[in-house]
Design a protein that fits this description.
- It contains 6 helices and no strands.
- The chain is an all-alpha fold.
- It has one domain (19-184).
- Helix 1 runs antiparallel to helix 3, helix 3 packs parallel to helix 6 and helix 5 runs antiparallel to helix 6.
- The longest helix is centred in the C-terminal third of the chain and has 36 residues, at 149-184.
Length: 185
């Protein structure tokens, strides 16, 4: 006798599914320490501004860059750890076999979407990194600091979206292999 209903939501698989997911999780866990660095430099700014009346020119822009970068990487981390947002209204109400087909559709649509975003981000990154005649010149913020943070963020977005494409391909292959294995049994 069990106390579970037939439509109990599945427990998400929190284990990385492949070597790329494992690497993303490991690197992301290390990068997450940069959130603490952002808190410290923001605290430094507050102390300098209000205790010594000597505001900095670099803290706000640097903290925004670090935070933005970490949130960009957070997307591939969530997918690698299977903690991404999903609409479970239909997913939880169907059989295990139907969930496998829904996963297949999810990975195909996700791959197409990530591929289009990666392609678009390539154009933005290229414009931010190179002049129209091909010389390397990073786009800067135009502030007093004038850091190349916009170019670096656009480059990071392209790299992360490219990694997301690879993740979708690997996950799609695993879904197809899982369906094949079930058909052979």
């Amino acid at each position: 006798m069990t106390d579970q209903t037939p439509h109990t939501p599945p427990e998400p698989d929190e284990q990385p599914r492949n070597f790329v997911d494992k690497a993303i999780i490991k690197v992301s866990n290390l990068l997450s320490w940069l959130f603490i660095a952002t808190v410290f430099i923001s605290f430094y700014e507050v102390v300098m501004r209000y205790a010594f009346d000597a505001p900095t020119t670099w803290v706000h822009e640097t903290a925004s860059f670090i935070g933005g970068s970490l949130f960009i990487v957070g997307g591939i981390y969530a997918f690698a750890a299977n903690k991404h947002v999903r609409v479970v209204l239909i997913y939880d109400a169907v059989s295990c076999q139907t969930r496998k087909y829904l996963n297949l559709v999810h990975h195909i649509v996700g791959l197409a979407f990530a591929g289009m975003l990666a392609y678009a981000s390539y154009s933005l990154a290229k414009e931010a990194w190179f002049t129209p005649w091909g010389e390397l010149r990073l786009e800067t913020s135009g502030s007093v600091l004038n850091a190349p943070y916009p170019a670096l963020l656009k480059g990071l977005i392209f790299v992360v979206l490219s990694i997301l494409v690879v993740q979708f391909v690997l996950h799609l292959i695993q879904e197809i292999m899982g369906l094949r294995k079930n058909k052979d049994v």
